Structure formats: C-alpha cells, structure tokens
Request: fold
Amino acid sequence: GSEVRAKLQSANLLSDMESFKAANPGCELADFVRWHSPRDWTEHSEGEDKEKSGAGGGLSARMKAPGNMWQDLWSQARAVPAHRQKRLFDETREAEKVLQFITNLGPGEVAQLVLPTILQAAHLRILSSEENLECLDYLH
Reply:
C-alpha cells in the first residue's frame, strides 16, 4: 500500500520537477520547493545569516535531510516540457479495467450496485410529481 503510493507520488513529483525545469532554465531545488511545497520553505527571521541560506529564505530541515526523496528526484529530473512527457494516467487502460470488472459481475452484484441509484431517481421523480400536483391544485 504505502510503497505503491510512494511510487505514484514520486512519478507525479518527477513529472512536476521536469516541467518546472523546462519552464525555468537554471532553477534550483529551492526554487521548485518554494513553488510546489511552500510549507517546506522557511523565510528568514530577524538576525539570521542571509548569506548562508539565500536571500529570501531556505529549505526546511525535512528538505535538507540526507537521503530526502526530493533531492534524489531533482538530480534525476531533466528539463522536459509537460506535453513531451510520458502520460502518467492511461484512461484507455483504466476504462478497460472498469469494463472487465463490470463484465465479471453477477446479476445480484449488478443489482446491489445499481439499486441505490434507482431508488434515488425514483425518490426524485416522486418529489417532482408532488410538486407538479401542488401547482395543478393551485391553478384550479
């Protein structure tokens, strides 16, 4: 579960980094973090040495930690515009999975999935019929 989620998140993050690098030549990880994850960017406090951490602030302790995934991905990321990147979501494959799932359902499972929608539609139909009857009573 968490390993799959981390892999998906890293694919999205890498894609974002590549797009950012393509749109902002010469940028650094700090520029990306400030844009993508503002909570991981710390502004200078009074008396802080601005020479050490940059003019406007610096990365959070989490981002500076050794082995941080963001640092690793940033070093891997190339400058690739979004329209040239491999798509992260394949709607055709996902639609095929849905159709396969529906095809394998039995009649009872279909009824169980469809029944709440049918009941809601019937309820709305009854309510609209009652409103129409009230309007007719008012006109007579």
